[in-house]
Fold each of these.
Amino acid sequence: MLEENKKKSLGRGLEALLGEMSEDIAGSETTHQKADNNININDIRISNYQPRKDFDEDAINALADSIKEKGVLQPLIVRKTADGYELIAGERRLRASKIAGLTEVPVIIKELSDNEVLEIALIENLLRENLSAIEEANAYQKLIDNFSHTQEKIASTVGKSRSYIANTLRLLSLPEKVQEMVSQGKLSAGHARCLVGLDNAEALAEKIIKEDLNVRDTEALVAKQKEAPDANNKKPRPQKSGDILDIEQNLNKNLGLRIKITPNKQGGGKVVLQYASVAELDMIINILEQKKPAEINLQNTVFKAPEASNEKFSIKFVD
């Protein structure tokens, strides 16, 4: 059902370029279509705008066997050139027809510009299930660069979500060697997406292949990789001395307040007075606002509250 919806979407995307022939590209290769003419197979040359470079030879041979038995049921799309015809859509059928020994093939002749030929070739190839993720990403990028397609328009044309298009395009930011691994089928698109944005993507890709990691393992590996630098860069907090801890305990015990003392490397620090009620807050304010410094004797230690004019003294109330 998903593939059927995808084909219908592609057909609508090509309708503006090919009119009724949109279904020829997006439809099944076993569907009969009406050809304009039969032409000599040797008069057809492969378009320079064809984005696909690799073809599944086993699939081509299987199609050739079908053509030997039933003929070419779906015409090729071509345009007239000075020395013959240029193929617009149907390279698999053309290759299979040559293997099957045909001398003529049915065609539909269209008048199209170079840009239209490229756009059609790109969209036709996006229909194929065996297109690699990198080939797919390059096709999307060409639609953006050459035809000013937005990601939303591409998504609508090929029957995918915009986020899928965006994530596929991100693969093009990977190092060239990692992209080659994806094209060769050594890495899946899921593996590759985990590596986007990492400086050591190539090394991690080799590790994934060597250890035969699945996508979930790869996600865990990358997460660990991202956490490591942060852990190494964290500055150790100054440790509280035994004296500071004793002072905290004595203040907490004698004042009945939660008091936290945090020293810093410069020899200073901060004292945080935590209160649980408005009454406790009033008590703290009364002590600090006394005109004369308040003295608090805790066992053998005397603490004096600083004058209000002391600019280096700050108070932070924490609920």
Amino acid sequence: MPIEQSFHLNGALAVRAALSIGIALCLVSCSESAPQTSITEAASDVPASGTATSILNAGVMAQVGAVDGGSVKILFDPLYDDHFGSLQQLPPELIEAIVSGAPPYDGVNAVFVSHAHGDHFSATHLTRMLASQPQIQLVAPGQAIDRMREDANWQPGFEDRVTAITLENGEAVQGIEVAGAYVEAFRSPHAGWPGRHAATHNITFRVSAANEDGRASARIMHLGDADPAAEHFAALSEFLSAKRTGLAAVPFWFYGEDGLSAIIDQTLNAQSAVAIHVPVNAPGYLEAGERPYFSGVGDVLEIPAAE
């Protein structure tokens, strides 16, 4: 049976999704009478150039741009082992659909992992995914790649398809081309720093796809479990201000305090945002706020075009 999840876009994009896991993704409108509207409608007349679709927890599937007449399909944090009692657990059918590449997860070009915690990462499932889908490239912190190399099913041939990112906090890397997309990354502290997870390499990815004339047509950013303190982004100000991000997928706590809108809009230089990593018992400020958040399988947002 299809599993229908609640959809929380707070009036931004009126789309509802029902996912028959491992079979197909069916999109229907939230309202029979209300027209569909873009998340960017109120703030910009820039056309959308891609979509971001929720998986579960911090998982996001993005289809962006036009490369050689097509587009790039990427997944962020799609597979994980642990829900720690507060997050949604990945159903086995959904795991197998992602691992095997069943629709709507077919034709994936690249997978990005923010960090090697169990609620964002599964060495076993990602290793199986690489074996099942030989076209996929993987970009992840070196900590995550090292754990995958320890998996019993790791194959030496995977080495040519993985890119390990190793950075210090406040450092960024640019100019990585993966599956036709332009990838940039930076490291900032994991939430709870410095008391918790100080040694965890939490990587934010900023991914752009080019259109036929070589200009960026879509840009999405995924922050994993980044700590929201402004001081963490001070050393990255030039990197962040150099390019406008169409959609930033931020952990839900970025919505929870006064002044954090400035972090999203100004510091991260994002035109729009969606909250991810939302627990089953979502905090009240998410529903009370005006910004959208993902909480189920198949929620969809448009990604504004980037310049």
Amino acid sequence: MKEQWKARLAAARGMLVPLAVKYRAVLIVLLAGVLLLASAGHGGDTDVRSTAQTQDAADFDLVAFEQQLCDRLAAVDGVGRVELMLSLEQTGEAVYAVNTRQTTGGANSASFESDLTVVSDSSYGETPVTVKNLLPTFRGAVVLCDGAGDANVRLAVTQAVSTVCGIGADKVTVLKLSGAS
């Protein structure tokens, strides 16, 4: 009986090895997918507070954005010192998940009820479920820089600001900084 099982195991191994060699790429991708799925389950309980803190950190900060853009523009050859003012069309907003239920009262009457979807944490607090965060949209920009006397610098600054802010070049004004030589 043992010899029969050994023979069957050897025959199965003889068939599987060529298949494994032939389809090794597929097996590697399949194994990677299984490992990713398995590792996702070992993250433990997700802390709602840390998710909320991450969400708060993702909020748009206009002053920090302007400063970061100034730093990047100042690194462009010929620009020199930079001052920047951005105007917003609308501020950012968060879109929250909503549960909506339709109830029928009679033959032709229907009403809708909706409430905000929330997640409860372990300390009995509730956090609304965010579907997406909309970033603010820009109305225009004024850039003051030392190198604005050069047309190539003005063009480079205009293109950079319009690309980063998602506004047209006609909404970006580049002017020479006073006291610049």
